[in-house]
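Supplementary notes for students who missed Thursday's class. We covered one full example, reproduced here. Read the sequence, then the structure, then the short commentary at the end.
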Amino acid sequence: MTSETVVDIRDIPFHTADGGTASLSDYGDKVILIVNVASKCGLAPQYEQLEELQRTYGDRGFTVLGFPCNQFMGQEPGSIDEILDYCAVNWGITFPIFDKVKVNGGGAAPIYKALKKAKDSEGAHGPIIWNFEKFVLTPGGTVHRFRPTVKPDDPAIVSVIESNLPG
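Structure (token representation):
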């Protein structure tokens, strides 16, 4: 009989934009929206909606976390400094953007290996299908998965956020 250690998704380390390490536990009991972003993607206008969610709910126990990824048609080719500059200048992003990650394959970041186990509204799990796939982690540990074409301000996402905020 084998024993498998279960790791809380909040304890999985990942790299910050400045070369440090962080984990979701650094965000306490916040509702967290995790998204793989890409500056050159046709879905990049979703940055505006992500920032609007951050501004609307950020002081109520919510945060967006962006993970740049270059795995889909090379749509995030820049350095982390170029990515941070793009996000600030073009979208006024105030939420954290982390170091570039791989979301699929053997080199996938451990946080994404864990997130890909979550099922979407159709019951499907597995590989990230494109840039701007979204995961909402609730304080209770539930992960809600939303595919790239589901916009950040979609009522299904907003409902999960609002129903899990304190008070």
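Commentary. Helices lie at 46-57, 80-91, 110-115, 155-164. The chain is about 25% helix and 15% strand. If anything here is unclear, bring it to office hours.
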